Amino acid sequence: MPKEKTRKIRSKADAPKGGGEMGTPEYVNKNCWLARSLNYSPYNRCQYCELKYRNCLFLQYQVISLALIVFFVLLFFLIEGRVTGLVIVCVFTFVIVYGYVLNKSMDNIIKANFAQRKTSLALEELTAKLEERVEAQTKDIHAKAEELAVKNENLNKLLQVKNEFLRIVNHQLNTPVSIIKNTIFMIKSGDFSLEKGLLFIEDSVKKMEEIFNDFWKAFSFEGEGVKLDLAKTDLKETLIKLVDEATISPLVKDRGLLVLVDRECDIPPVKTDPKQITQVISNLLQNAISYTKKGSVSVSCDQISDDFIKVFVADTGCGIDEEDKEKIFEKFVRGTRAIHERPSGSGLGLYIAKKIVEANGGQMKLEMSEPDKGSTFSFTLPIWK
After folding, report:
1. Are 345 and 331 contacting, i.e. CB atoms less than 8 angstroms apart?
2. Which among 367, 246, 248, 370 is positioned nearest to 317, based on CA atoms?
3. pLDDT score of 138 more than 90
4. Predicted confidence (pLDDT) per residue in 256-283, tens digit
5. Strand duo 258-261 + 296-303: pairing
6. Residue 98 neighbours by CB distance under 10 Å
7. Is residue 265 classed exposed, middle or buried when 0-12, 13-18 and 19+ CB atoms within 10 A define those classes?
8. DSSP states of 3-26
9. How far is CA 52 from CA 33, 49, 203, 244, in A?
10. What's the DSSP call for residue 301?
11. Average pLDDT, integer, range 288-311
12. Rounded mean pLDDT of 72-96?
């Protein structure tokens, strides 16, 4: 008999409980009625099998062996009329040899199937891991590509800002520098008196100082943010003062503009930085006057809630084109009509004003604007409590 059949069979008491991994002595094939009943693998080959008992190769061998024995015994009985001892020995010898060879073949087949199944599982696991790895690397590549695209976009924006900055600086500084050079030349040639020339030079230096201050403030806002020294402020008094100063400016007189302010408005004090909010109002007033050739510029205010005051600055100037409205508060951005009306300009006035208002807890926006009909800007400030 094969060794697998002659090995000592463990008793139920000594048998390990089922549930081990296939291919180990502890494994019990729960699909097999015999192994499940014994609660251990009766043969070594059973450690590698997961077939049902009726599909067991050894069971099939037993059935075939029994059929061969019956077949040969009946054959000899029909031929000889009797069954001799030699016939029985020969039949059983044949069955044993056949069983031994078949038993070995079954062992190899079952183990080969197990090895193939294990290899398939390993390949499936490896394939799954490779797919996960490829997917992770693909996501990583996509993430890096997106990050690179964002960085590239930011770099392009920085390059545009740099180019715009250099263009505006060159243009803005070129005018006052040219005036200073021409004034000095005319003083030397005797066309200008020293006193008159110094007035032109002083005005140009003041213009350059304003340009540098705007640039410095705009870039400091980007890094450190807007720093405010908040205090209780009489906004109405500030508005009236700035409007009175604007009324006597040469540009207003030359164009015959009406610069109006609602002197009867009744509003409580606001919480703001007086110096910074003065610049906001001055920027809006200066823009309104610069882009209005005829008509008026008006300033009004209203208490829109228990918490906020809203200020309006309206003009009857050139207005803003529809395509320029969305970007009018961006750094270095000027509307097409604004450039045509006044070529000199840094494109920082509205940007700085909006930054200050937002840092103060308010909002600034373009209320309305129509080409050749004018614009209305507004901003809010919190009420002092």
Report:
1. no
2. 370
3. no
4. 999 999 998 889 999 999 999 999 999 9
5. parallel
6. 14
7. middle
8. HHHHSPPPPTTTSPPS-PPTTSTT
9. 7, 9, 104, 104
10. E
11. 94
12. 72
Cα–Cα distance for residue pair 239/265, rounded to 1 Å: 11
Please state, in angstroms and as integers, the Cα–Cα distance from residue 277 to each residue in 63, 107, 280, 353, 360, following that order: 104, 94, 5, 8, 9
CB crowding 354-368: b at 16 or more within 10 Å, else e: bbbbebbebebebee
Q: Which two tokens stand for residue 168?
A: 């505006």
Neighbours of 218 (CB within 10 A): 19
**1 confidence band (pLDDT: 50, 70, 90):** very low
User: Could you tell me which of 249, 170, 181 has the C-alpha nearest to residue 215?
Assistant: 170
Q: Which two tokens stand for residue 108?
A: 């190899």
Write the single-letter amino acid at 342.
Answer: R
User: What tokens were used for 150?
Assistant: 């964002």
pLDDT value at position 311?
A: 96
61 within 8 A of 99, measured Cβ to Cβ: yes
Condensed to tens digits (0 to 9), the pLDDT of residues 107-130 reads 777 777 777 777 878 888 888 888
With 60 as the cut, is the pLDDT of residue 228 above it? yes
CB contact set of 342 (below 8 Å; sequence gap of 6+)? 290, 291
